[in-house]
Amino acid sequence: MAGENQQRSLRKSIAAQQQQPAPPARQEQPQPPGKTPQQGSGGGSGSRAEGAAPPSSPAGAAEKVALKKEIGLVSACAIIIGNIIGSGIFISPKGVLEHTGSVGLALIIWVLGGGIAALGSLCYAELGVTIPKSGGDYSYVSEIFGELAGFLLLWSAVLIMYPTSLAVIALTFSNYVLQPVFPNCIPPYNASRVLSMVCLSLLTWVNGSSVRWATRIQDIFTAGKLLALGLIIVVGFVQIFKGNYEELLPSNAFNFWMTPSVGHLALAFLQGSFAFSGWNFLNYVTEELVDPRRNLPRAIFISIPLVTFVYTFTNIAYFTAMSPQELLSSNAVAVTFGEKLLGYFSWVMPVSVALSTFGGINGYLFTSSRLCFSGAREGHLPSLLAMIHVQHCTPIPALLVCCLATVVIMLVGDTYTLINYVSFINYLCYGVTIIGLIVLRWKKPKIFRPIKVNLLVPITYLTFWAFLLIFSLYSEPVVCGVGLIIILTGVPVFFIGVYWKNKPKCVNRITESLTHWGQKVCFVVYPQGGSIEEDDLPFTHSPLQEEKRP
């Protein structure tokens, strides 16, 4: 594993600086055979944990410094739903409508988008219980295609994908909060950035303080956005019962004001597919799920149909109050809907958008920090990011990196331009991961699979994926080209930072000093409790472990 020499020397350095000798209890907990330093437990992490632990925490106590399994089924569903449903369904569902040319075809595209997301989530459910490691796509691609492929996915995600998405959500939140203060103009640039940073800092603190707090916030705000969308749907049904459904009659719904080409349909489908982005986020926190073998697939099977139902009926409700032309001309569809039908309570819609984005920021921070944690644990990111707080058991260094990367993107980048590249990279990663499922079926047909989907499921998904990818390359060559360049910039970084093991001693000394300083500042250590592979046997069954067995 890359980085082992560095971590061994780091352990020696920290052990030499400890003031007290290791307690006898340490001898009673031998390192599990085959455990690598990156996986958390073992000699080095044990000494770090005991050296950094407060005096009131005796070494050898039953309580281990490890990621806690605190995400139940309800919170798991909240993570998926909260990350899928962002501000888009409230603000601008017109992207699908303008490319389809009719109400009826737009609704069909929304249903198909949910269907394709369901196919993808079924594939991820199989991968999630076959390779039960936090990190999602990164962990699966690394296991199946090797370290370089996994690192490139990790590099693009940490460098631009998640910081840019977080920045867009945070700016949307601040704009809607500030809108009442600046009713007749766009909120000032500096004001929106400052409020976004305050929101990010607050949620970073919450996520660093307690996993339970973070999941409760996700539960509450997901319930809030579902209630807001439920209000829209109920008002829409009231409109239908009143007879206001002219736009939904077949004769009107399929009355095309433009004839959509194959290209238009592809763009419409792409818009619909991106609205479901986030369906794979639960796979990033597999190791913190309670009974992941059951709750991972259950949460997916509950959440994706629910989101598809909500998206489709929310769009139906919009058409009971607005004509297609009104919807296309609105910059915030839910706000326009509220102004037309809710009267005095129209303020509910902008508040709902703000609350929805606040919950989205929390969900993105929670899951993206676990991606950094997983990458560092495998030696692909600085080892400090693989450490957790000795009391709160949260990956504080990884959370801080995610927060700071988002702030940098927010300050120095054209955030709304970068999101175009992010969409392409994200979609590319989905397809590569699901290709990996088929490759794993071929390379390792006999490994333990608690869930095994029909082979037609990944093939159907990849058929749609290939069509949209080819069309994207044809219609947006610059955007796709820049996206590929961003991914490929990780190749030299991999060979210098990961593959090159025998670095000069001065580099290792600097790295060790920075890591040791970071440990003291953040009060973090390597997890003692081991990874999920130890805690959940025989459920966890890594393909690479299977390959190494005699």
Automatic annotation (TrEMBL):
Keywords: Amino-acid transport, Cell membrane, Disulfide bond, Membrane, Transmembrane, Transmembrane helix, Transport. GO terms for cellular component: plasma membrane. Its main location: membrane. The chain crosses the membrane at residues 71-91, 103-127, 148-174, 194-214, 226-245, 265-286, 298-321, 341-365, 386-412, 418-441, 453-475, 481-500. Residues 1-59 are annotated as: Disordered. It is found in: Cell membrane. One of its GO terms (biological process) is D-alanine transmembrane transport. It comes from the Eukaryota. GO terms for molecular function: L-amino acid transmembrane transporter activity; neutral L-amino acid transmembrane transporter activity. Residues 15-29, 47-59 have a biased composition (Low complexity). The keyword Endoplasmic reticulum does not apply. It is a multi-pass membrane protein. This is Solute carrier family 7 member 10.
